[in-house]
Amino acid sequence: MAPTQQALAGAATSQPPHFVLVPLAAHGHLIPMVDLARLLASRGARVSLLTTPLNARRLRDGGVTDKAARAKLLLEVVELPYSPADYGLPPDCQNADMIADNAQMLPFFLALRELAGPFEAYVRALVPRPSCIISDWCNSWTAGVATYLGIPRLFFQGPSCFFSLCDLNAAAHGLHERIAAAEDREPHVVPSMSVSVKVGNGRPHGFFTSPGCKELRHDAVAAMRTSQGVVINTFLDLEEKSVACYEAALGKPVWTLGPFCLHTRDGDDMASRGGNKSGVSERAIVTWLDKQAPESVVYVSFGSVARKLPKQQFEIGHGLEHCCRPFLWVVKESELASPEARMWLESLEARTSGRGLVVRGWAPQLVVLSHRSVAGFVTHCGWNSVLESIAHGVPVLTWPHFADQFLNEQLAVDVLGVGLRIGVTAPVMILNDDAAAPVLRGDIARAVSELMQGGEEAEERRRKAKEYGAKARKAMEKGGNSYERLTQLIESFRHGGGKDNEHCSGVIA
Ligand code: UDP
């Protein structure tokens, strides 16, 4: 039997369609894929989520598998053997949050490519073949075996559709290469965007765009070509124009199924997302939030990867102290390595006791954003954070760092009108690179006050955020666009329909 026929035979049985999900080993990609796994399983599909041993352990410890079993969902977490040591990395460097310095970034991605072998062995052993593979855009190493065995494969784009379209258009016009070759110092306007978008040197414009990553990018783009479509964590009412343009440019279906974070209202589910431990219990955080006035608290967090040096931390701390508003600030343990940083933070906590809460480590972000006392979010503009904020009707103060984040900022501020810029224009490398150009305490205090105050512009941001929040909830309810798209996706692959969607007339460079 030809490989494609084999796959279709598997999919055509009375068994539920089987989705194999392969997230990138980084919270910003893993968390939404786990949400997607739950969404698919809660609608009757069988789901296997494949990841490295450390992430599998975190997911199990976070209760993902136990909860799925209790709810009788067909959701399993599968460990793929992984040896980062072959690339000079410590054995536990299995998630982007375990990367110690910027020099480990490229080896981390190269090491992940070695998962191709275990992945192929896993897929080949499955009888019947899975109905569909959904793998992160960065995991191009899933494409070969899917194509060979004729298993339909979708790629998952972690960032916004606005970013994805911009990246595709920039690639189609050779902008990434020109910028990497430093041919032009001036920023380039990306063609075919609904607003003026500029990318160039000194302005980060996506993933794998630095010169050392040329091969990774090449492979990822090649894997897009052989896919049958893309899944994006967004919703139509938020990004309708970008979705239509992206679909046309890609020549493949764009499955907008989000916001995934709204898949549950269960407090325990929301708190355990990401499976990381916090220095403060979820209960203590909620108790503190309960004591604050409605819509008074600013939440400050820079995602799972970006790490700040003490100099910048001090500015943030003093800025929050000076703006005289209740704040909940997440500081990573890795940012508190020095005794000076720890002592400084303790004294800030003493001075702002009652008005401020510092969470060391990991915060239950959805619990915070869904609390009625939270009215603003200072964010690094990772797409999950922006979308989670919008989904809960909370406007954002944008402080992008790298990769897609400057474009997510532009979407939030210029297109959606739910954000205010703190004013950074230069990127910082992922880890500990913000010493050169710190954002100063006065600017932070002013921007936070502007976000949180009354006045026409601030009210308008709040109104729009709430409006999008309501639309987000509607999209995820029965009859809503994301809900119905998920139904179509499952039904499409139940009948091996992934093949029907295969048309590649787009402009993938
Ligand atoms: N997150 C969290 N608690 C934290 C930090 C992050 O729950 O203390 C979650 C957050 O809700 C989001 C993800 O981690 O789902 C971060 O993804 P994002 O795209 O915002 O940024 P990244 O970490 O990829 O830079």
Please give the structural blueprint.
Elements lengths: L2 H9 L6 E5 L4 H16 L3 E6 L1 H9 L2 H7 L4 E5 L25 H8 L3 H10 L6 E5 L6 H7 L3 E5 L3 H12 L2 H6 L7 E2 L8 E2 L14 H12 L4 E3 L3 H15 L3 E3 L10 H6 L9 H10 L5 E5 L8 H13 L4 E5 L7 H13 L4 E5 L4 H5 L4 E6 L3 H9 L4 E3 L6 H11 L3 E3 L19 H12 L3 H21 L4 H14 L15
Parallel strand pairs: 1-2, 1-4, 2-3, 4-5, 5-8, 8-9, 10-11, 10-13, 11-12, 13-14, 14-15
Antiparallel strand pairs: 6-7
Helix pairs in contact: 8-11, 14-15, 14-19
The protein binds uridine-5'-diphosphate.
Uridine-5'-diphosphate binds next to helix 2 and helix 17.
Descriptive terms for the model:
single chain; 509 residues; alpha/beta; seven-stranded parallel β-sheet; 21 helices; disordered C terminus; transferase
Please provide a written account of the structure.
The chain is α/β, with parallel strands linked by helices. It has helices at residues 3-11, 27-42, 53-61, 64-70, 105-112, 116-125, 143-149, 161-172, 175-180, 214-225, 236-250, 267-272, 282-291, 310-322, 339-351, 365-369, 383-391, 405-415, 441-452, 456-476, 481-494; strands at residues 18-22, 46-51, 75-79, 132-136, 153-157, 188-189, 198-199, 230-232, 254-256, 297-301, 327-331, 356-360, 374-379, 396-398, 419-421. The protein has a 7-stranded parallel sheet, sandwiched between helices. Strands 12-11-10-13-14-15 form a 6-stranded parallel sheet, sandwiched between helices. α14 (310-322) packs parallel to α15. The model is unreliable at 1-12 and 497-509 (pLDDT under 50). Uridine-5'-diphosphate binds at residues 27-28, 31, 273-274, 301, 303-305, 330, 362-363, 365, 382-385, 388.
